[in-house]
């Protein structure tokens, strides 16, 4: 059985191969039931949460991501979120791999954004604005750089000091990188804007954006959260990772839908439509595109299979 820690998982999930693995999975017959959500009592503290996210390819693999969220861990000096991915044979049920869930999630999420960017951003997109300074930010830079000729990265965060390490990570990739404090000005210069924040109010305003901009929205994952305003949504061609997920969780879309500004029919396509060729993606160089991602268990399964199979091809199984 293969066991990969955080560092080994990162090494096993190179973005060029991972993006292709996600494309194949979105075009496959993967079964991805709704996630299971359970409240777990912790005596004397706020309830914890247990999340179970299954997916399987019939006759090939069965996967399950288990994530726990313990709010009280902050007082213990521990992370509040832990996660692991269990990958089993789809023929015998034998456990084949245990993979670090946090790193898998971060890299497959960034890979999904890059996969969407293949179809939705301009092919000459060279300036990337990243909003947010969490774990995803550096992954998003590397992933977008894999599919587009990114040369300049702008990093914005509510705390500029936290943005500096992200800029340094971009420079280590050979890119020009700047920390920015004027978000409106930076958004007006960017070809791709990738947001990975926990914002409950719009960060990106449609009035700031040039024709041809691609807006990649990742962080706001609840109906009460959003990273874009109504104008940005209304001006853009809208795409999502999965329709079911977006229509149940994506505040960036659900809030303007509730206001009657857009409807479900305004979602042009999801990733399955794009990778299968049912929708061509970007329609013109001046079109503004918006991709809303809330995550899908089939992405985790794709990453876990890729990690297992790529690891098995290395000499002596070395990571």
UniProtKB/TrEMBL annotation:
It comes from the Bacteria. SUPFAM superfamilies: NAD(P)-binding Rossmann-fold domains. The keyword NAD applies. Keywords: NAD. Transmembrane segments: none annotated. It holds the Pfam family OCD_Mu_crystall. Belongs to the ornithine cyclodeaminase/mu-crystallin family. This is Ornithine cyclodeaminase family protein. It comes from Rhizobium alvei.
């Amino acid at each position: 059985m293969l066991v990969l820690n955080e560092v080994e998982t990162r090494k096993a999930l190179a973005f060029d191969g991972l993006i292709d693995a996600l494309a194949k999975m979105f075009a496959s017959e993967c079964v991805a039931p709704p996630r299971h959500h359970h409240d777990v009592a912790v005596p004397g503290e706020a309830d914890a949460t247990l999340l179970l996210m299954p997916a399987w390819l019939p006759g090939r693999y069965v996967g399950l991501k288990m994530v726990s969220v313990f709010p009280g861990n902050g007082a213990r000096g521990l992370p509040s979120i832990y996660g692991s991915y269990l990958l089993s044979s789809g023929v015998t049920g034998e456990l084949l791999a245990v993979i670090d869930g946090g790193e898998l999630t971060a890299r497959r999420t960034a890979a999904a954004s890059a996969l969407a960017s293949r179809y939705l951003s301009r092919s000459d997109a060279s300036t990337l604005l990243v909003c947010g300074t969490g774990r995803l930010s550096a992954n998003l830079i590397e992933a977008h750089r894999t599919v587009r000729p990114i040369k300049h990265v702008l990093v914005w965060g509510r705390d500029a000091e936290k943005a500096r390490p992200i800029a340094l990570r971009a420079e280590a990739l050979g890119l020009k990188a700047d920390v920015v404090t004027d978000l409106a000005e930076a958004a007006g210069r960017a070809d791709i804007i990738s947001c990975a924040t926990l914002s409950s109010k719009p960060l990106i305003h449609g009035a700031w954006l040039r024709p041809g901009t691609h807006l990649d929205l990742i962080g706001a994952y609840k109906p009460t959260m959003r990273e874009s305003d109504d104008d940005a949504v209304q001006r853009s061609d809208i795409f999502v990772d999965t329709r079911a997920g977006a229509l149940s969780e994506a505040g960036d879309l659900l809030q303007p839908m509730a206001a009657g500004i857009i409807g479900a029919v305004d979602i042009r396509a999801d990733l399955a439509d794009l990778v299968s060729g049912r929708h061509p993606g970007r329609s013109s160089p001046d079109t503004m595109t918006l991709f809303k991602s809330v995550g899908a268990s089939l992405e985790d399964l794709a990453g876990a299979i890729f990690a297992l199979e790529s690891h098995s091809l290395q000499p002596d199984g070395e990571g």
